């Protein structure tokens, strides 16, 4: 259900028609999305699309020129009225960890707990360090820790004042791919255990899908689709989302009915009805997992590229000048470059857009 069908303040974070920028024009416009209590959301998009700008507005560092931001039912940003960052109960975790180099790990985590009694504060710090599995490193300094450990300290520090919402700005981008994957799942588990809501900014789609319940795909400062990962992949709202999310190639087709398309890959039948007239020219999205190997098939495209990836191999196939596509096969199906391979399309979710 689109978030703004609800009129009550059900949402933890409710961003409505937000517009903001630096100086004259807006960098982001008409941005709307809403996050439930305990949910992890994501702003995903190419470099420069406005992800960090939205995060700055949420944190209270950037005033808004249009729309509003509501947290727990309270407006915290309106044009001309910005609740200061320290009054928002929003925690932040940055890409570069931003730890204090001259403070120990325990002191870093306890930094935001100045008002607490000494004993209480120590107990809280140790509890947080335990949560991120760093209790044995309490007396070390940041430079003695690995990047992944430092980022866990940064998370513990952000969690210490018990924020309502945590903003994570490309938190794993300084880490290698393997650690990135593990840490993103660890962080998801920690946030879910605590029931803390978070908003992650990333341009890494796998990270967004692994960690987040809902994702906003952004382009040029506008939300293209705010949805669960499954729908972004299988029901992309437009061509940009279809091309940006997952792998895939567009091939030409022609509508023959509301759910049927003729193409060089044969007569394709989808499971949802479109509104186009028979004869409408279309671009049809073919995902690598829509193509299956079928010895009986008369469709025999030629292998033009092959990328071995351990358990599977990604093939690029050529049918004609206009029709090239990819297929992912288990790697025991081993074909040579130039070989003609019998395949067929098996796409439950047939995605197509009218050709412009
Ligand atoms: N402080 C600033 N002053 C003026 N323009 C800025 C400022 N910060 C960002 N911009 C511009 O706003 C646009 C969006 O930038 P933003 O940092 O929000 O993008 P992003 O999606 O977070 O990109 P990246 O993934 O590269 O960090 C860009 O065109 C950028 O040049």
TrEMBL record:
Keywords: ATP-binding, Cell membrane, Ion transport, Iron, Iron transport, Membrane, Nucleotide-binding, Transport
GO biological process: quaternary ammonium group transport
Keyword ATP-binding appears in the UniProt entry: yes
GO cellular component, one term: ATP-binding cassette (ABC) transporter complex
GO molecular function: ABC-type ferric iron transporter activity; ATP binding; ATP hydrolysis activity
Residue ranges occupied by any ABC transporter domain in the UniProt entry: 10-245
UniProt cross-references to InterPro entries, sorted A to Z: AAA+_ATPase (IPR003593), ABC_SmlMolc_Importer (IPR050093), ABC_transporter-like_ATP-bd (IPR003439), ABC_transporter-like_CS (IPR017871), ABC_transpr_FbpC (IPR015853), Mo/tungstate-bd_C_term_dom (IPR008995), P-loop_NTPase (IPR027417), Transp-assoc_OB_typ2 (IPR013611)
Listed name of the protein: Iron(III) transport system ATP-binding protein
Species assigned in the record: Marinobacter segnicrescens
């Amino acid at each position: 259900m689109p978030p703004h069908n609800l009129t009550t303040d059900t949402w933890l974070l409710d961003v409505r028609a937000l517009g903001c920028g630096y100086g004259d024009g807006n960098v982001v416009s008409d941005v709307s999305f809403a996050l439930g209590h305990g949910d992890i959301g994501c702003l995903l998009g190419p470099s420069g699309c406005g992800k960090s700008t939205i995060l700055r507005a949420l944190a209270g560092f950037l005033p808004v020129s249009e729309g509003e931001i509501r947290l727990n039912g309270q407006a915290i940003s309106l044009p001309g009225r910005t609740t200061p960052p320290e009054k928002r109960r929003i925690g932040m975790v940055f890409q570069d960890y931003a730890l204090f180099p001259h403070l120990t790990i325990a002191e870093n985590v306890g930094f935001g707990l100045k008002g607490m009694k000494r004993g209480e504060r120590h107990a809280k710090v140790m509890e947080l360090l335990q949560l991120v599995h760093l209790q044995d490193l309490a007396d070390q300094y940041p430079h003695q820790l690995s990047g992944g450990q430092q980022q866990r300290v940064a998370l513990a520090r952000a969690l210490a004042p018990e924020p309502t919402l945590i903003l994570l700005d490309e938190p794993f981008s300084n880490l290698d791919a393997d650690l990135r994957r593990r840490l993103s799942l660890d962080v998801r588990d920690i946030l879910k255990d605590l029931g803390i809501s978070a908003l992650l900014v990333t341009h890494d789609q796998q990270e967004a899908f692994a960690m987040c319940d809902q994702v906003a795909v952004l382009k040029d400062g506008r939300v293209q689709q705010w949805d669960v990962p499954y729908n972004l992949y299988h029901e992309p709202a437009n061509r940009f989302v279809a091309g940006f999310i997952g792998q895939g190639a567009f091939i030409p087709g022609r509508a023959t009915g509301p759910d049927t398309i003729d193409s060089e890959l044969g007569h394709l039948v989808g499971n949802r009805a479109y509104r186009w007239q028979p004869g409408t020219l279309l671009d049809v999205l073919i995902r690598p997992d829509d193509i299956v190997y079928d010895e009986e098939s008369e469709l025999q495209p030629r292998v033009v590229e092959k990328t071995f990836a351990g358990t599977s191999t990604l093939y690029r196939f050529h049918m004609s000048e206009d029709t090239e596509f990819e297929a992912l096969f288990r790697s025991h199906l081993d074909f040579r470059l130039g070989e003609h391979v019998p395949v067929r399309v098996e796409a439950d979710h047939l995605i197509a857009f009218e050709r412009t």
